[in-house]
């Protein structure tokens, strides 16, 4: 009796077709050329600027946002000749919490002309305000109150309120603290506010802290509290923590 031979296994046609389709999808995956980094990038990793439609790779857009915010500007479309800016809502998923806070601060700053910007002179606050709004709420003498911390300030001199002194007397007695138009001071206060810097109450040098306790020793030798901005009280250390 002749032995029966077992037929060779035949791979189903639908499996072959599925494998071919999978290979083709890999081979023909859509890519786009990023004109900034000059790489070919998967279309899924490209960012579309909402108002103008220009597209760049997400990695570049993240770097671009960071650089512009550090430079004190609102991120713009990097396409040559394009005048549109990026939208904070459109970029929401690309931003860290700090970057979003800085961006909102930049939007607020851009809404106020540079010479109109007044920052609260108290180191623990540095809130941004408009000279026009301060003048409307304050007095002719320059006396006003910070909208946030409610500290007494002189919005003419951009310093804490100088009791029993006119602005001219204050300028004459403390020329190093007085700013004529406040433009440079506004830029510095903006950076201080965004980075959490504190101003030495003795020499007025800006100090930044990376880590450590609240007791800071400035380069001038003066010790002050980084939390509240006032001179360090050796006999009452608990008030600084």
UniProtKB/TrEMBL annotation:
Keywords: Metal-binding, Repeat, Transferase, Ubl conjugation pathway, Zinc, Zinc-finger. Its cofactor is Zn(2+). It is an enzyme of class 2 (transferase). One of its GO terms (biological process) is ubiquitin-dependent protein catabolic process. Its EC number is 2.3.2.31. PROSITE patterns: TRIAD (PS51873). Residues 30-241 form the RING-type domain. The keyword Transferase applies. The keyword Flavoprotein does not apply. It catalyses: [E2 ubiquitin-conjugating enzyme]-S-ubiquitinyl-L-cysteine + [acceptor protein]-L-lysine = [E2 ubiquitin-conjugating enzyme]-L-cysteine + [acceptor protein]-N(6)-ubiquitinyl-L-lysine. GO terms for cellular component: cytoplasm; ubiquitin ligase complex. Pathway: Protein modification; protein ubiquitination. One of its GO terms (molecular function) is zinc ion binding. It holds the Pfam family IBR. This is RBR-type E3 ubiquitin transferase.
């Amino acid at each position: 009796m002749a032995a029966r031979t077992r037929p060779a296994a035949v791979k189903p046609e639908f499996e072959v077709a599925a494998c071919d389709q999978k290979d083709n999808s890999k081979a023909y995956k859509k890519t786009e050329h990023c004109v900034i980094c000059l790489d070919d990038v998967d279309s899924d990793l490209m960012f579309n600027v909402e108002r103008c439609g220009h597209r760049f790779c997400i990695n570049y857009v993240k770097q671009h946002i960071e650089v512009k915010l550090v430079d004190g500007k609102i991120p713009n479309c990097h396409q040559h000749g394009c005048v549109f800016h990026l939208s904070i809502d459109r970029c929401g998923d690309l931003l860290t919490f700090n970057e979003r806070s800085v961006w909102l601060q930049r939007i607020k700053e851009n809404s106020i002309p540079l010479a109109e910007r007044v920052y609260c002179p108290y180191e623990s606050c540095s809130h941004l305000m408009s000279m026009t709004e301060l003048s409307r709420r304050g007095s002719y003498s320059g006396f006003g109150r910070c909208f946030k911390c409610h500290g007494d300030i002189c919005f003419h001199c951009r310093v804490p309120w100088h009791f029993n002194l006119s602005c001219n007397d204050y300028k004459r007695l403390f020329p190093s603290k007085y700013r004529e138009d406040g433009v440079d001071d506004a830029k510095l206060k903006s950076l201080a506010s965004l980075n959490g810097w504190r101003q030495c109450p003795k020499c007025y040098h800006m100090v930044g802290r990376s880590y450590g306790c609240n007791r800071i020793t400035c380069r001038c030798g003066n010790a002050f509290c980084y939390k509240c901005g006032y001179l360090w009280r050796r006999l009452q250390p608990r008030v600084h923590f």
